[in-house]
Amino acid sequence: MGPSPKTLGRNWPGPFRKTPGRLLGLGLVRTYQLAFSPLVGGHCRHVPTCSEYAYEAVARHGLVAGSFLTGRRVARCGPFGCAGHDPVPERFSWRPPHR
């Protein structure tokens, strides 16, 4: 059994290549988390939250692919969308996963 989520922090702690695009994307997500997320409140129906998902998607798959995955995830957050555990896929694909 690994460390609890509280000890790991809010965002994905795994290794990733620190390219300029990834660092820019992660900086934008982190700015949102610190500046705007407290104003919006905790209304996310998914685990991890959309900003945590965005951070992990950009870290693991790069700025373009991570942004695409994040956009697809945010589109699922509408009033008729699903809820629950929705992890970042291990491998990137332009097609949505079959559910």
Helix-strand blueprint:
Blueprint: H1 5-8, H2 20-40, E1 46-47, H3 50-61, H4 63-75, E2 84-85
Compact description:
This protein is globular.
Describe the structure.
The protein is mainly α and 99 residues long. The protein is 51% helix and 4% strand. The chain has a two-stranded parallel sheet. Helix 2 runs antiparallel to helix 3 and helix 3 packs antiparallel against helix 4 (63-75). It is globular and about 35 Å long. The N and C termini lie far apart (28 Å). The relative contact order is 0.16.
Brief descriptors of the model:
disordered N terminus, 4% strand, single chain, two-stranded parallel ribbon, 99 residues
* C-alpha end-to-end distance: 28 Å
* C-alpha-based Rg, rounded: 13 Å
Report the oligomer: single chain
Structural class: mainly alpha
Strand order of the largest sheet: 1-2
Low-confidence stretches: 1-7
Q: Count all strands and give the number.
A: 2
Number of helices: 4
* Beta-strand share of residues: under 5%
Largest sheet: 2 strands, parallel
How would you state the average pLDDT, rounded? 84
Q: What is the N-to-C succession of helices and strands?
A: HHEHHE
